[in-house]
Design goal:
This protein is of the alpha+beta class and about 210 residues long. It is about 35% helix and about 15% strand. The protein contains 7 helices and 6 strands; from the N terminus they run H-H-H-H-E-H-E-H-E-E-H-E-E. The strands form 2 sheets. Strands 1-5-6-2 form a 4-stranded mixed sheet, with helices on both faces. Strands 3-4 form a two-stranded antiparallel ribbon. Strand 3 and strand 4 form a beta hairpin. Helix 4 runs parallel beside helix 6. This is Pathogenesis-related protein 1C-like. One of its GO terms (cellular component) is extracellular region. InterPro entries: Allrgn_V5/Tpx1_CS, CAP_dom, CAP_sf, CRISP-related.
Length: about 210
């Protein structure tokens, strides 16, 4: 009798242990990493001012003087436009004010998100704080490598080239830009340029007048 009871107790113990072991939950899955913001901080940095032939009064003049900032943006844009025999852009302070106002809205989150303005708009985000007007225009210009003037499309997908086509949009006559370091230094910095009239209409060649 004692032997029978012993086996009953042992059986209950083993069954209970198995049930407890099988109810242990799997560890929670790691949350997916946040999407990586766009920008060009991962590349080896090029001397873009030298590439464009732009000479600064000092290396940080564009950070402290709006005139210097405007001069560098306009110079770099018109260097690109001259490559395609396009009319030069003129600086527009009202467009620059719109760009500054929008970047202030992004001061806390530093997200590379376009505004809802009715102008053409190019944006640039960099993780480090050393990016310059020439840098932004240079990397927008380098998107020319992905633009097919025959098909009027960015090739191959999913390459982007709309920053380039906006710079060389013939009908755009004015530009205004802003540069801002975000609230937290580790969040990076943003650059925005507004263009009037806007470009990038579907199936239209950026080098020709729109119809």
């Amino acid at each position: 009798m004692h032997t029978f009871l012993f086996f009953i107790v042992l059986l209950i113990f083993l069954t209970t242990s198995t049930i407890v072991g099988s109810t242990n939950e799997q560890p929670p899955l790691m949350s997916p990493a946040p999407p990586h913001k766009g920008g060009h901080h991962g590349h080896r940095r090029r001397n873009t001012a030298k590439f464009f032939g732009y000479i600064r009064k000092n290396q940080t003049a564009y950070l402290h003087n709006q005139t210097e900032l405007a001069n560098e943006f306009v110079y770099a844009h018109n260097w690109v436009r001259n490559e395609y025999k396009l009319p030069a852009l003129t600086w527009d302070e009202s467009l620059a004010s719109i760009a500054r106002k929008y970047l202030m809205e992004r001061y806390e989150d530093c997200k590379l998100v376009h505004s809802n303005e009715s102008y053409g708009e190019n944006m640039f985000w960099g993780k480090k704080l050393h990016w310059t007007p020439c840098d932004a225009v240079y990397y927008w210009y380098m998107e020319k490598n992905y633009y097919d003037f025959k098909t009027l499309k960015c090739e191959p997908p999913p390459k982007f080239c709309e920053h380039f086509t906006q710079i060389v949009w013939r009908d755009s006559t004015h530009v205004g830009c802003a540069l801002q370091h975000c609230h937290l230094p580790e969040s990076g910095m943003l650059i925005a340029c507004e263009y009037d009239p806007p470009g990038n209409y579907i199936n239209e060649n950026p080098l020709l007048h729109s119809t």
